[in-house]
Amino acid sequence: MLWRLGVGTPKTSLIRHHVGAVAANLGDAGPARHAAQALGLPGLYRSPSCWGGQAPLPLGQNFSTSEWSARCQAASFEIAIPIGRPALAFVVENAFGPFEVLQGVALRALLRLGLAGHSDESLLVRAMERIADLEPALQQEALDGLNQTTPHLFQNLHDRLRRPVLEGLELIAHRARTAHAQLTPIDTLARFAPERARRFLPDLKKLLAGEEHALDAALLIRVLEPGDSRALAILRRWADEHPDRKIRHALEQRLKPPQPIPGGPQKN
Questions:
Q1: Radius of gyration of the chain from Cα atoms?
Q2: Hey, where are the domains in the chain?
Q3: Which of 78, 58, 59 is nearest to 68 (CA)?
Q4: Can you say whether residue 170 is alpha, beta or left, with left for phi > 0 and alpha for psi between -120 and 50 degrees?
């Protein structure tokens, strides 16, 4: 147990056990907290040794080798969150490292650590600029790190933390190579800073003319500009015609008069 004092490292079997427990329960903060306490920083740095191989039985019946590897990678960065600032170097090393496949999950962890006050403004700026250069799937994975923060908590953060995130989301939306890639940062902006998200209303309204992204765009417009008649018509149509009953019900709920957003246009 001397590794708890910074001498040596926990055994490989212990590391594999805890990384596996987190990997099997992604989204549950409990196993990650327990793993952080059990492994500490030495175990975190050795956790990449668990990124290959098959899942232990009976988990192997649920995940392919590649799926399990991806989950173990994500698990390492989940363990980094409760460790906090001491884990920052490990996260940064992978967020800006040579392996793009790791950058999405690493940047997601970096955003979470940053908003928790464990990094400075310049590092958040670098993170958002890097996310803007990623492929759309990795962008979405990275931006998921912001979903852990509610709009209320975000507004209570110091401006030095809010500003690089908001400016970065605008940068990502401007650089987006596809409509789908643009929707994700605009959606996050709509949660945190609707006045900034409204700058992208012309882009959202262009998407209403198509089929692939019209529904997603209409949902966002409904939040940002409730009185828009085209978006309302699309939502009403899909509330009647969508093949999925749960989605029809969800759209019916969205068609109820929305709570006004401060500073937004109101329907007369």
A1: 21
A2: 70-192, 201-261
A3: 59
A4: alpha
Give backbone dihedrals phi and psi of 257, rounded to 5 degrees, phi first.
-55, 120
Please give the pLDDT value at position 3. Answer: 37
pLDDT, one tens digit per residue, over 223-238 is 999 999 999 999 999 9
- The single residue listed with the structure tokens 């309204």 is 205
Q: Which two tokens stand for residue 214?
A: 């019209």
What is the distance between the alpha carbons of residues 57 and 27, in angstroms, rounded to a whole number?
Answer: 21
Query: What is the distance between the alpha carbons of residues 119 and 130, in angstroms, rounded to a whole number?
Result: 16
- For tokens 């039985």, what's the residue? 57
**Which residue is associated with the tokens 């009976």?**
58
Cα–Cα–Cα angle for 155, 102, 44, nearest 5°? 85
DSSP 244: -
How many C-beta atoms surround the C-beta of residue 98 within 10 A? 7
pTM of the model: 0.86
Task: State the virtual CA torsion across 172, 105, 78, 59 in degrees, nearest 10.
Answer: 140
* 3-class secondary structure, 258: coil
